[in-house]
């Protein structure tokens, strides 16, 4: 008896829109299961349902604001509890700032780095 090969799983942060959503579509089209992470649970669930119906992809939704202290630890605990092994991390969450550094808000800079 030949054991069935386990599908790879990609964890994509910032998956509720933009580049993260497009990367999720690419992974699903290549038979990669997904863990979708972003703040917007509703948008993640919609994407997960669409990708599951179009590609047969298993898409786990884990809503989180990764800027919150402890969010990464909670995410890891949930992955462990669900026995999900992540093969590929696509770290797409976050935002950037433009302008003169000396004129930027200190708290915004700290939030961006977090």
Span of the ends, CA to CA: 48 Å
Biggest sheet layout: 4 strands, parallel
Mean pLDDT equals 91
Number of strands: 4
Work out the helicity level: 40-55%
Radius of gyration over all CA atoms, rounded: 16 Å
Strand content bin = 5-15%
Low-confidence stretches: none
Q: Give, in order, the helices and strands.
A: EHEHEHEH
Q: What structural class results from the helix and strand content?
A: alpha/beta
Shape: elongated
**Strand ordering within the main sheet:** 3-2-1-4
Q: What is the helix tally?
A: 4
Would you give an account of this structure?
- Helices cover 40% and strands 14% of the residues.
- It has 114 residues and is an alpha/beta fold.
- The longest helix is centred in the middle third of the chain and has 15 residues, at 41-55.
- 24% of the residues are buried.
Short description, anyone?
40% of the residues lie in helices and 14% in strands. It has helices at 18-29, 41-55, 71-81, 106-113, and strands spanning 9-13, 33-37, 59-61, 88-90. It has a 4-stranded parallel sheet, with helices on one face.
SSE map:
Blueprint: E1 9-13, H1 18-29, E2 33-37, H2 41-55, E3 59-61, H3 71-81, E4 88-90, H4 106-113
Parallel strand pairs: 1-2, 1-4, 2-3
């Amino acid at each position: 008896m030949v054991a069935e090969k386990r599908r790879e799983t990609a964890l994509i942060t910032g998956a509720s829109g933009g580049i993260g959503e497009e990367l999720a579509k690419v992974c699903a089209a290549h038979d990669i299961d997904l863990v979708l992470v972003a703040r917007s649970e509703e948008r993640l669930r919609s994407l997960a349902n669409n990708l599951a119906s179009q590609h047969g992809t298993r898409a786990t939704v884990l809503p989180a604001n990764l800027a919150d202290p402890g969010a990464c630890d909670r995410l890891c605990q949930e992955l462990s509890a669900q026995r999900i092994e992540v093969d590929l991390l696509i770290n797409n969450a976050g935002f950037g700032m433009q302008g003169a550094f000396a004129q930027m808000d200190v708290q915004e800079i700290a939030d961006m780095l977090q």
